[in-house]
Amino acid sequence: MARGERERRAQGTALEVGRERGKCQRCTLRSSIRIGPPTGYVSRPVDRGKRGPPLTELANWIILDTRASACPRRPSKGVIPMARESRYDVLFDPIQLGPKTLRNRFWQVPHCNGAGSDRPGFQAAFRGMKAEGGWGAVFTEICTIAPSSDVMPWVSSKLWDAGDVRNLAQMCDAIQEHDALAGVELVHSGGLAHNAETRAGGLTVSQLPNDINHMANGRAMSKREIRDLRRLHVDGFKRARDAGFDLLTFYAGLGTFPIFFLYPFYNRRTDEYGGSFENRTRFTREVLEDIRSEIDDCAIGMRFVIDTLEEPYGYGDGGVRAHEEGKDFIAAFDDLVDYWDINIGTLNWGEDAGSSRFFDTNHEAEYTRVAKEVATKPVINVGRFTDPDVMVNVINSGQCDIIGAARPSIADPFLPKKIELGQLEDIRECIGCNVCVSRWEMGGPPIWCTQNATSGEEYRRGWHPEKFSEAANKQKPVLIIGAGPAGMEAATVLGKRGFDAVHLVDASAELGGHLTWMTTMPGLAAWRRVTEYRERQISKLPNVEFIPNVSLDAAGALDYGAEIIINATGSRWSGDGINGSLHNTIEGANSSMPEVATPEQLVIEGKQLGSHVAVVDSDGYHMGCTVAEFLALQGRKVTYITHFDNLGPYLRNTLEEQRLYQRLVELGVEILSQHVTLSFEPGKVGLIHAWSGAERVVEADSMALVTHRYSHCDVYDQLLDDEDRRVAAEVSQLHLVGDAHTPGMIAQAVFSGHRLAREIDSPDPDTPLPFIRERRLLASTEDDFQLGAKTLLPLLPL
């Protein structure tokens, strides 16, 4: 078909679609929508809720849509946003913190991001983005004060020397540029520090077995060494002031000296630093008084674990409890601090950074209220706050004075700004999956976020979560096949980059892909936010259309009329039991049998299994455990089998392992780790121990397979192999994203769709553009650390 004829035909389709949805003909033609569904398809209006203007560039309120518009349905540049509702005013009241004034009640509490002080550009851009987004205070992660507190392999900030001061000063400048306060959480981790880089000996309060560093326990410090340690703290705080920090937090929790002295779990001393509460808090008092004697131009506060919880989640009598010594600690030091940042837990910090699987928002309220009973200084409260109404209630009720957040600030750095300017529907809510946390637990590679693909990419790729450049190829109509996480994200970003027409087509009736069924499983309802946010964004983009209930094969995709085709068709769980330990199938197991099922069959089709189900997990993340819980809640006897050393090993990184293990045990699930599943016949499952080689048989009348995922990429493969038909159909770009390319976690699928859409007009969109790598380069200049630098090219030009 000639291009002119195709355009005339497609414009006719566009006019019909436009009339159905209430758009004027002029707007539809101006947007050059030249693509349409297959012949015979009847357009079905989609109820998307309230339609608003496209998301604006929040920093200056310029609508990204660069096309001229004379239609009142399409806002033009300079749109004035709605003012916030008056009930949210309390969130924007300033509050005094010693010599500093916090301009609002939003406080990004210390959290890791994989930058530390060794990647100053990454750190500054990441934290500066939070300040630009309206957070009144923005902190580093933990910041160690001396080489004897080297936490490698984990990535922390450091203030060991003048070089660290110089690097972190860049972060302070980036934060303060937006009228926010720059904060640092200063720590010495004592004997829990691995000192893997410095090889320094450990410093400990008492010589006891080490919680983490199992091959080192350190002798008890002498009184002279305690005096030297006090000096280390003062010098570290002074370096923080020299770097430009406004808020200096003395951390008393998660492996720091104030708690090593305070908790009986760590302190067995019999001198003036052990025994009574007064003695066990002596070191903390001495350090605070030392700091106060030398620093008077910064706000000095404490982050304090007010309750170490009961066993098995905490230390029990070996720690502190909120209504006892937790409360006493705050009363004892209230006169020496300017603020209190309150949290709970132990080195097992999953009770503090609780995942949405087990904890609702504001789950630490009962502990923060205790702090407010005695504190006269402002109190910060964490609890995965994303709802401004909840925030207002916790402040107005006297529960706290300031809203603290780590994960919500990662998911949406512009959360405060969106509340301030009345854009509540544009808040990208944290889903509480703890993928961000997992990066620290893995040792500190750059941060990932399921909701926010730009997190950690602000500096090295130059991405902004709310700003999008106009695409050079925006006139090309786009077809995205598959409306799961990758497809939704790609459609949203392409829409914001100003593409004339983007059609997001899916065989199902709603957006979400596999999230539509997975989020109905136990504990995963909050993950629905991934779909809900993108659904709202798509509903506000007049150049993006969701086409439901349409299944496209290769021929249908070519006939659609698009010049860019993106396949985001997801993946499916294996029905034959192929797994990572054998790279083979499980003999006798096949999901076509009535006794065997995949997760999709169990949830979507409602396939019923027998009374005793063996769940075979070689996935390693949450799905095996989720299926086991799903079946146990139906009243079935469940045996969970995995070749890993523990259930869902990645759950340890997301801090969910302990809670989920206990939940399964409470439901009567038998857990068999280190066992490879060899065979199945109704009534018998053949196993072999992964280490000993001992074989055994366990009883089960049915089996659920959570072993492997296959990419749904048939349409892509057919299109890729038929270049002649692509050329004839005038398809100039063909791409594959998300699970259809590489099955993985949702965060990676979202990132895949986002990256492609950001780089869709690059010379080779399938190959990611080079990003800035912060590393030592011999004879380098600042020009070497810019996007497009010659040093980022695969080969230097001759």
What is the helical fraction, as a range of percent? Answer: 25-40%
Looking at the structure, what is the overall shape?
A: globular
Task: Tell me the β content.
Answer: 15-25%
Strand order of the largest sheet: 5-6-8-9-10-11-12-13
Gap between N and C termini, in Å? Answer: 45 Å
Describe this structure in words.
With 798 residues, the chain is an alpha/beta fold. Helices cover 29% and strands 16% of the residues. The protein is built from 25 helices and 28 strands. The model is unreliable at 1-34 and 38-80 (pLDDT under 50).
Layout of SSEs?
Blueprint: H1 3-20, H2 25-30, E1 56-57, E2 62-63, E3 95-97, E4 100-102, E5 106-108, H3 120-132, E6 137-144, E7 157-158, H4 162-176, E8 181-187, H5 223-243, E9 247-252, H6 257-262, H7 277-280, H8 282-294, E10 299-307, H9 322-333, E11 340-344, H10 365-374, E12 379-381, H11 388-396, E13 402-405, H12 407-411, H13 415-420, H14 435-441, E14 478-481, H15 485-496, E15 502-505, H16 515-518, H17 529-539, E16 544-547, H18 554-559, E17 564-567, E18 571-573, E19 596-597, H19 599-603, E20 612-617, H20 623-632, E21 637-642, H21 650-653, H22 657-666, E22 670-672, E23 675-681, E24 683-689, E25 695-700, E26 702-706, E27 709-711, H23 714-721, H24 723-728, E28 733-736, H25 746-758
Parallel strand pairs: 5-6, 5-13, 6-7, 6-8, 8-9, 9-10, 10-11, 11-12, 12-13, 14-15, 14-17, 15-16, 17-28, 19-26, 20-21, 20-26, 21-22
Antiparallel strand pairs: 1-2, 3-4, 18-27, 23-24, 24-25
